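anyone else get weird line breaks when pasting these?? whatever heres mine. first is seq + C-alpha cells for prot A
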Amino acid sequence: MKVIDIINSENPTLSLEVFPPKVSAKYESIEKATEEIAALKPGFMSVTYGAGGGTSDFTVSIAENLEKKFDVPVLAHLSCISSTKEGVRTQLEHIKAAGLTNILALRGDIPEGMTNSEEWDYHYATELVREIKEFDKDICIGGACYPEVHPDSENQVEDIKHLKEKVDAGCEFLTTQMFFDNNIFYNFLYKVREAGITVPIVPGIMPLTNINQLKRTLALSGTVLPLRFRYLLDKFGSDEAAMKQAGIIYASEQIIDLYANGIKNVHVYSMNKPEVALKLMENFSEILKWQRP
C-alpha cells in the first residue's frame, strides 16, 4: 500500500520510524526491536538510510522483513549525496525486488572529507526525486522538510523555494525534521501553503528520553529547545526513569495538540525503543482506535 493513500485517508494515524544496524553484529538485536515496534501496527513505518553521511546496507532487508512479516506499509529511506548514479540505480533495483513501493528521498548528510562538489553526482534531493520518477513512476515518493530552516539554507524563503522545486519534481508528501514547539510547525505550515506547496506535510516528533540522546539530536539537527523543555531537563535529566516518562509525556502533549488542530498524521522517531512506541500508541488508543496486540 502506498503511504500517500494512508496519509490522505480520513483516519488519524501515528507512524513510527526505526533505523537499521550499522554493522552486521548488531543486526539480530535491532531486527528484534524493529519487529516489536511493527507488531504494534502503526499507520506505517519508515526505515532510515544512515546518519552523518553514512549509508546502510540493511535498510532494504529491514524494511522488507517488516512489510512482509507484519503487513505494515514501510517507507524506505534513500539518500544520494554520497552515492553515484550507478549506486542509486542499484539501490532502487534492490528496493523494487523487495516489493517495496514507498521511498523517502533525501539528500543526506555530507560525509566528512567530501568537499569537491564538482565531482558529486547529486547535490540536492530534488535530483534524486527526478531519478526515482524516471526509474518507476508508480513509486510513492516522500521528502523531508525543516520547520526551523535547513542548516545549509541562507534563510527560510530560500529554503521553501527549494522545497517547492522538490515537490514539483514529484514529491507526494513531506515529513518534517523534529521540533519541540508546535507553534514553529504551524508557522511553517502557513508559509509553505502561501508558497503554493499543497502536498500533505507530516510533523515529525521525537520523544527525548535521556540526556545523551538529547546531545546527539541537537548536534545533528540544530533544533531549538523551548524554555519549557529546558526546565523539564533541569528537573528530571539526572533520573533515567523519570526522564523517559517526562519525554514521553512531553511528546504526547505535542501530538495531542497536533491532532486537536486538525493534523491527521504524526510521525514519531522511535529510536528503536519498543517500550516508548508502545506507550505512545496506548496514549492515543481511542483517537487512533488502536487496540493492544
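and prot B, same format (seq, then C-alpha cells)
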Amino acid sequence: MLLFMSRYNHTIDPKGRLSIPSKYREVLGDEFVISKGMDGCLFVYTSEEWETFAVKLKSLPLTNKKARQFARFFLSGAQYVTVDKQGRILVPQDLRSFAGLEKDVVLAGMGSRVEIWDLERWTENDSQIDIDETADGMDDLNLTI
C-alpha cells in the first residue's frame, strides 16, 4: 500500500526545477504525474495511482456538465514528469502559474498523493483549519479514530 506522509519545505528555482524528497522518490519512481489540484495546489501521483484515477474520470457520464468539467480540470491539467540525476523535476510553467509557485514551496504527503503548495498559500490554508470542527464531520464519512 502506498502511503505518502510528512511535510517538506523546498524551493523551486527560476527555471521551475524542484527537488523531490528521497522518501517520496522511493515511491514515485523516475516518472510520475503532476496535475492541477484542488484548493490551489498541485497533485502528484504515481503512474499507477494516476491510471486508477483516470479510469474513474473516464467512467463519468459525458451527459453531466459537472462531470465533464471535473474530468477536464484534471485530465487537461496533467503531465508526466521525469526525475533528473539530482532528484529534481521540471514543474511545467502552466502548473507553476496555476499554483502560484515562485520560490518557497511545501510538499505534503496526503496518503495516495503528494500535494505541492506555495508556502504562503499553504500557511494561510493551514491556519484556517479548525481540526475539532472538521473532526466532528468525519463520522459521516465513516472515519473514526
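btw re prot B: The first strand starts at residue 7 and ends at 11. The radius of gyration is 16 Å.
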